Amino acid sequence: NYRRETSQPKAGVVITSFRQSHRSFGKDLLWSSTSTAAVAFAVATSASSNPRSPPPNSPPATRRDSVISTAATMRVLNVLRHWISKHSHDFWSDERLRGLTMDFLKEIEGSPGLLPAEHKAAAQLLRLLERAPERTVDLKALFVPPHVPTKESVETLSALEIAEQMTYLDYQIFSSINSEEFLGQAWTKADKAERAPHILMMTSHFNHISNLVISEILKKYTLAGRVAAIEKWAAVADIARCLHNFNGVLQVCAALSNTSVYRLKKTWEKVSKTSKQTIERMQTIISSECRFRILRDALHRCDPPCIPYLGMYLSDLSFIEEGTTNYTPDGLLNFSKMRMIAHVIREIRNFQQTPYKIDHIPKVCDFLLDNSLVIPEERQYTLSLELEPRVSRGSGAGLPAGASPGS
How far is CA 32 from the centre of its chain? Predict the structure, then answer.
């Protein structure tokens, strides 16, 4: 079980170890390993010796080794069960890995030296691998902007319709993010488009919706129109909060805190007290103070389905990557770092696995995805000044007390 020259345990032994201190190693390795899937498979299965039954008159030591090997095989199967059930994408995106795994399981299933329980476990895993994955939404097709500008607007659609379809779109992207995209700060690298495509898509869509909200407010040339738009989007954000779509809440609140909207003092003076209180309550929840402490508490209390603010977790992962080394001073893999990364990714995956029961409404999604409705960012502040010219250098914005831009 240990290399003689170093007395360090082999990876395949530790990943399937019965020791209490090693029990979570396999799961954490799968969540946080930067190795290829095929290499991870080789490590996960290297402790299985696929033993045959010892001869009837074999010495006690031989029988003991057989029992130990059989137990190791079952632990290998347990690791594979976790991998297949929690990371099925690995097997459907890598034919070589899927083939290696199926060959291994068929060998286990047909081995006469193993227990019936092990044969049954291998057969169950084979059935999982042979079952075609459930049909998923085609993201590219779903997020194609309408070819003809939509006739819908924030006035023609209800706050509930907008909030539900915002949540529908957010969840489709969020649930498609693979665990590998969170490793090694992939979303910041030169090849980020290949390594973290869905994280980039989530970020891009977040910015698009925020700019849409800003645009829908600034396009109203009357004060009453702008007030109605702000109150409507405040209601949308509040419904998103009730749907546990905290990403959607941040999309709207980021727009309301944008300088182009925030500075509209005359407009904010006419916004109802109820809407201001709603905005203040949401700004408190999503505040970045103390590393999003209040938002984290809300996430831990709510039951899925839920869409967290992804930027919070990306900050956590960046902090871990930049603050800890990959190897210890002794040259060993820093498993403490892997465990911290695994904890963050596991929390994200827990939210990804429970879908919303919301039907797709094309006309509302067309409104949310229509690029023609968005005022270019470089034009937004100029338009804001045209609507309410600057009166004095120190003019306020009229947001509720405690609400601050960028919170």
Answer: 14
Give the separation between CA 204 and CA 192, rounded to whole angstroms: 13
Cis amide bond preceding 9, omega within 30: no
Q: For the chain, how far is it from start to end, CA to CA, in angstroms?
A: 53
SS3 labels along the chain: CECCCCCCECHHHHHCCCCHHHCCHHHHHHHHCCCCHHHHHHHHHCCCCCCCCCCCCCCHHHHHHHHHHHHHHHHHHHHHHHHHHHCHHHHHHCHHHHHHHHHHHHHHHCCCCCCHHHHHHHHHHHHHHHCCCCCCCCHHHHCCCCCCCCCCCCCCCCHHHHHHHHHHHHHHHHCCCCHHHHHHHHHHCCCHHHHCHHHHHHHHHHHHHHHHHHHHHHCCCCHHHHHHHHHHHHHHHHHHHHCCEHHHHHHHHHHHCCHHHHCCHHHHHHCCHHHHHHHHHHHHHCCCHHHHHHHHHHHHHCCCCCECCHHHHHHHHHHHHHHCCCECCCCCECHHHHHHHHHHHHHHHHHHCCCCCCCCCHHHHHHHHCHHHCCCHHHHHHHHHHHCCCCCCCCCCCCCCCCCCCC
**How far apart are the C-alpha atoms of 171 and 153, rounded to whole Å?**
22
Q: How many beta carbons lie within 10 A of that of residue 141, not counting itself?
A: 7
- Asked if residue 75 lies in contact with residue 42, where contact means CB atoms within 8 angstroms, the answer is no
For residue 327, what are the β-bridge partners?
A: 333
Q: Are 405 and 285 within 8 A, CB to CB?
A: no
> pLDDT, tens digit, for every residue of 211-252?
999 999 999 999 999 999 999 999 999 999 999 999 999 999
Per-residue pLDDT reduced to its tens digit, 372-403: 999 999 999 999 999 999 876 554 444 544 44
CATH assignment, 139-387: 1.10.840.10
- For residues 272 and 231, the answer to whether their CB atoms sit within 8 Å is yes
